[in-house]
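Consider the tokenized backbone below.
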């Protein structure tokens, strides 16, 4: 399923995008699951889908973005939440502008601790994990936020291809969330990554960043919020600007191949990594990289220029089984990019300049019990 987990329109109070237009935008971009996440109030897209006679084309649920100050760290989305139409903020929680930990805890516990997805929006990873006042001295940050968080926004995805050195050379090194995210996972905190547009405009607002979520059905009318919640919480997610990707791990010890989000034990440190990438006919990828514990594996690097036979010209751009050497207590992530390529004018003038990029969430390998 193609999912957008962070969108805005005029009920958010900071833009002039019609909410009906937002829903049209999501539908036209073929987003199949999109919770309503306006700033500071619980809201729903149900009435807009009804007007468009399109409820069967997109699954949704009520939710919100809780928008406290201490930007950018104190913004969190949550869904599903119970919408109470005639109450203040649609029945949603208040912000806590002193303490992002207290705020995210309040959101996570809302609706009598009902199960929900709590998403950390566009965080400054350094501030969250290490340095709350950003004075360059480690002070533990707001790391307690992690205890209440199901998923974390880590866009832009192309940053995964920049190493530490190249990241330090960026005008804003904190703009690379991918490296600290992988370090976080390596430290044992398995918070799945997501990418979202945070769209505040309708025309080409939605669509240029999306999540492919594993799902038991291919029909949006049959998607349940409960299933989306649990798939997100367990990291069965691929992050993308457009390309679609499947990743699985084969090993004689496994009756079925391990999928993204799974934790498995292998018979030996040698397994097979299956990667398939598909693109619509206006975009392409030309480089595939495998990361183990956040480190790129040069021997598994594939480029159209060096491995032309590994890449296809049609819908399937890449379909290979790669020999993977992976020790226990490790995780593997696959990423692909169209270097020197763009999404193109299908995505409009601004977003069309983005590169085609796709990044998987981890498959985890543990020692046999
Ligand atoms: Zn937002």
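A designed sequence for it:
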């Amino acid at each position: 399923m193609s999912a957008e987990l962070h969108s805005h329109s005029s009920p958010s109070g900071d833009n002039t995008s019609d909410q009906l237009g937002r829903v049209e935008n999501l539908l036209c971009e073929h987003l199949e699951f999109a919770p309503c996440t306006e700033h500071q109030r619980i809201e729903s897209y149900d009435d807009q889908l009804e007007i468009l006679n399109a409820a069967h084309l997109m699954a949704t649920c009520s939710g919100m973005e809780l928008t406290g100050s201490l930007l950018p760290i104190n913004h969190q989305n949550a869904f599903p939440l119970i919408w109470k139409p005639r109450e203040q903020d649609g029945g949603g929680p208040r912000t806590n502008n002193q303490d992002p930990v207290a705020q995210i805890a309040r959101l996570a516990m809302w609706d009598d601790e009902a199960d929900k997805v709590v998403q950390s929006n566009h965080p400054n990873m350094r501030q969250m994990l290490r340095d709350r006042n950003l004075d360059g001295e480690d002070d533990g940050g707001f790391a307690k936020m992690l205890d209440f968080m199901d998923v974390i926004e880590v866009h832009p995805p192309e940053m995964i291809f920049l190493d530490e050195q190249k990241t330090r050379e960026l005008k804003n090194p904190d703009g690379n969330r991918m490296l600290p995210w992988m370090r976080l996972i390596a430290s044992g905190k398995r918070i799945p990554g997501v990418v979202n547009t945070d769209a505040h405009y309708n025309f080409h607002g939605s669509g240029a960043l999306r999540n492919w979520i594993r799902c038991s059905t291919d029909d949006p009318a049959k998607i349940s919020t409960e299933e989306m919640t649990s798939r997100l919480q367990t990291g069965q997610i691929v992050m993308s600007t457009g390309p679609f990707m499947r990743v699985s791990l084969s090993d004689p010890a496994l009756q079925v191949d391990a999928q993204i989000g799974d934790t498995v034990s292998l018979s030996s440190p040698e397994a097979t990594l299956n990667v398939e990438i598909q693109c619509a006919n206006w975009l392409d990828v030309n480089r595939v990289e495998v990361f183990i514990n956040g480190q790129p594996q040069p021997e598994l690097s594939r480029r159209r220029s060096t491995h032309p036979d590994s890449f296809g010209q049609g819908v399937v751009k890449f379909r290979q089984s790669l020999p993977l050497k992976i020790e226990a207590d490790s995780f593997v992530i696959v990423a692909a990019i169209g270097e020197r390529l763009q999404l193109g004018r299908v995505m409009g003038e601004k977003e069309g300049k983005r590169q085609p990029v796709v990044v998987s969430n981890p498959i985890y390998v543990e020692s046999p019990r």
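The mean pLDDT is 97.
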